[in-house]
């Protein structure tokens, strides 16, 4: 089989030239396109994106650092600082820039002589911190310490020393609950605001109290600093600096001297004092003790100190003035008497007190076991007779009493610049039906009329009640100095009735009543008021038969609360006050609510005399609150060291002496009202046999 032969293509020089030329044109076209693309891209980068890459280039050579703004001051009504700023050298760690965290912390601990507690805190905060959030190492450094860190920066990546300002609270613990404190922003804060200032080392935000409420106006505008650096980040020279703009100052109605005095005068007790100007409603003092030192929180509180505060049975971390709720006890009796007058009961009408009264099948006692005998309204308030109010309250009913309680401020929600507050309870038949689905009973009225049962109040509400009884006006508490507010409306009772109540409250203090300890030491100034005792436990029939245990023999948490509300001067009220001592039990006359209130009011009329007395008393209390807390911290640290085996236990004689010193407390005769006290919800009642 034969196949047809294939014709071979003849290659000529012309065909080869044509083929080469075509390929060259294609390659050249591709090269030209690539060249044009590169030229276009270079033109785009150099012209259209010139600014962008200039900034990137500049950022490689220059670092721009925000300078935290100085926080605005918080000042009192006279311009004295309650919270200001102090110059501060500090060192922070930036977690995302750390190379060897353990080695860096060890070197910093050696250079700055950090305590073990501080090192533990730094390690824990590093573990919890997001990469962008700075962790404080130390502040309040000396210049030598600051310089020692600065010269070693090339060997300490992630360490950020800075010179700035830190928050300072001159009065310390006395303003802890009032002002709150500042601290570093959290990851949640940054996610919510996306403000680069929040991740700037040294910048802090308000965390509690007024610092938190007024955080935005207190925060100024940050400054900026440009410095030239090497590729490794070493600073070569400073280029330009734009100064920061401080935040706006906040002026409060608080009197700084009175605030500090009230905090110190609460002595070793757990309680609060509130003082209100009867002319304007301005709050002059809002003290809650024991408290925390806001300087410690703002500087970064140690775990040991926080543990000590959180385990203290006097609850120093709770703002008792706004968040504490207490049965008001007999301090409500002037209010109840005002409701009786409005219901048409004559102040001259008498009730015979025999020491107890039966309501249904329940026996209710007066605080005076043998009774007071016949008493009119003035005498019943002065002697704090329970039987008088038991009988009269049943005649008018709870609705009238509850209405008057609300008019004088009990249970009222005030518009205050604080993150949280508790409002208390004014019970009535509708309230009980709504809350418990139960009918109101006569014994509920009997309990409520002496400030027990379901009735609750906070110290600020008690001070407002005192101010409204003193003036007959519905004064509203105010914290911002000069803030516009409407003229107060009248309480809605006749002046004649108010005169009767004020005269009876004057008799409580100056007419042989239960509040003699509140008598003023300032010549020409008379204090009117009402004492109160609120039980926190039920007294059984068996205990009454065998003898009611005194507060001095009870554990701290089972002792009665001691209360006082009043105003001064009696004949021309200018200041109203409320004082509540948690579990005070009327054990110590000097540290009881009436005398604390009296001394606090005396500061407003004669500061020098009041301070002289306070300084004398503090010698017996172990010094100022700051000095006592320092001793408490030292003892707590030692106890922890002994517990861990890091320190030997004290010798037996020393331990015995310490125990004896701790148990020794100045005592005095108990308040007459505390001798045989009515009980809390249902606890004032004794079941009949």
Automatic annotation (TrEMBL):
One of its GO terms (cellular component) is plasma membrane. GO terms for biological process: cell wall organization; peptidoglycan biosynthetic process; proteolysis; regulation of cell shape. It is a single-pass membrane protein. Residues 271-585 form the Penicillin-binding protein transpeptidase domain. Pfam families: PBP_dimer, Transpeptidase. Keywords: Carboxypeptidase, Cell inner membrane, Cell membrane, Cell shape, Cell wall biogenesis/degradation, Hydrolase, Membrane, Peptidoglycan synthesis, Protease, Transmembrane, Transmembrane helix. The keyword DNA-binding does not apply. Residues 653-677 have a biased composition (Low complexity). It is found in: Cell membrane; Membrane. Residues 639-689 are annotated as: Disordered. One of its GO terms (molecular function) is penicillin binding. PANTHER family: PEPTIDOGLYCAN D,D-TRANSPEPTIDASE, PEPTIDOGLYCAN D,D-TRANSPEPTIDASE MRDA. This is Penicillin-binding protein 2. The lineage of its organism: Bacteria, Pseudomonadati, Pseudomonadota, Alphaproteobacteria, Sphingomonadales.
């Amino acid at each position: 089989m034969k196949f047809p032969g294939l014709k071979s293509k003849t290659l000529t020089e012309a065909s080869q030239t044509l083929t080469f030329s075509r390929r060259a044109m294609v390659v050249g076209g591709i090269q030209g396109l690539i060249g044009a693309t590169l030229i276009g891209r270079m033109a785009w980068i150099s012209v259209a994106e010139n600014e962008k890459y200039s900034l990137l280039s500049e950022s490689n050579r220059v670092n721009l650092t925000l300078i935290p703004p100085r926080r605005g001051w918080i000042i009192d009504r006279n311009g004295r600082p309650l919270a200001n700023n102090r110059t501060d050298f500090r060192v922070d760690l930036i977690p995302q820039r750390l190379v060897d965290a353990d080695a860096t912390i060890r070197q910093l601990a050696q250079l700055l002589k950090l305590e073990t507690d501080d090192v533990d805190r730094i390690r824990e905060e590093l573990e919890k911190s997001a990469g962008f959030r700075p962790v404080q190492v130390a502040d309040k450094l000396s210049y030598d310490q600051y310089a020692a860190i600065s010269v070693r920066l090339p060997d300490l990546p992630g360490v950020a020393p800075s010179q700035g300002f830190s928050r300072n609270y001159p009065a310390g613990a006395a303003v802890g609950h009032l002002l709150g404190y500042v601290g570093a922003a959290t990851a949640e804060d940054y996610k919510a605001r996306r403000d680069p200032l929040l991740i700037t080392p040294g910048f802090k935000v308000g965390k509690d109290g007024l610092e938190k409420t007024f955080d935005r106006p207190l925060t100024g505008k940050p400054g900026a600093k440009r410095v030239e650096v090497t590729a490794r980040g070493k600073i070569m020279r400073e280029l330009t600096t734009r100064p920061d703009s401080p935040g706006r100052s906040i002026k409060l109605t608080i009197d700084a001297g009175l605030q500090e005095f009230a905090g110190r005068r609460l002595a070793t007790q757990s309680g609060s004092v509130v003082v209100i100007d009867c002319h304007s409603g301005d709050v002059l003092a809002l003290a809650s003790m024991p408290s925390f030192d806001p300087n410690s929180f703002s500087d970064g509180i140690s775990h040991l100190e926080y543990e000590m505060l959180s385990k203290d049975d006097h609850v120093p971390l709770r703002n008792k003035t706004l968040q504490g709720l207490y049965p008001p006890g007999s301090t409500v009796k002037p209010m109840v008497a005002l409701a009786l007058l409005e219901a048409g009961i004559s102040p001259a009408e008498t009730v015979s007190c025999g020491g107890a009264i039966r309501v249904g099948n329940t026996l209710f006692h007066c605080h005076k076991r043998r009774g007071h005998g016949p008493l009119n309204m003035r005498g019943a308030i002065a002697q704090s007779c329970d039987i008088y109010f038991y009988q009269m309250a049943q005649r008018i009913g709870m609705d009238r009493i509850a209405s008057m309680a609300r008019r004088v401020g009990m249970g009222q929600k005030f518009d205050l610049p604080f993150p949280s507050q508790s409002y208390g309870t004014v019970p009535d038949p509708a309230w009980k039906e709504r809350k418990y689905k139960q009918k109101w009973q006569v014994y509920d009225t009997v309990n409520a009329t002496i400030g027990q049962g379901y009735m609750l109040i906070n110290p600020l509400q008690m001070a407002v009640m005192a101010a409204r009884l003193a003036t007959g006006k519905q004064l509203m508490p105010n914290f911002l100095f000069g803030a516009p507010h409407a003229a107060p409306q009248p309480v809605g009772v006749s002046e004649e009735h108010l005169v009767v109540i004020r005269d009876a409250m004057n008799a409580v203090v100056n007419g042989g009543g239960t509040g003699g300890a509140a008598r003023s030491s300032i010549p020409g100034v008379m204090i009117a008021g009402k004492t109160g005792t609120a039980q926190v436990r039920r007294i059984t029939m068996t205990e009454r038969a065998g003898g009611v245990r005194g507060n001095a023999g009870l554990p701290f948490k089972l002792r009665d609360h001691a209360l006082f509300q009043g105003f001064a001067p009696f004949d021309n009220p200018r200041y109203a006050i409320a004082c509540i001592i948690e579990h005070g039990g009327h054990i110590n006359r000097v540290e009881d609510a009436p005398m604390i209130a009296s001394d606090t009011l005396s500061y407003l009329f004669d500061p020098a005399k009041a301070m002289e007395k306070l300084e004398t008393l503090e010698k017996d209390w172990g010094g100022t609150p700051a000095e006592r807390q320092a001793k408490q911290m030292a003892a707590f640290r030692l106890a922890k060291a002994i517990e861990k085996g890091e320190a030997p236990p004290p010798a037996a004689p020393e331990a015995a002496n310490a125990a004896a010193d701790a148990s020794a407390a100045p005592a005095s005769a108990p308040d007459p009202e505390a001798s045989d006290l009515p009980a809390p919800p249902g606890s004032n009642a004794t079941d009949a046999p």
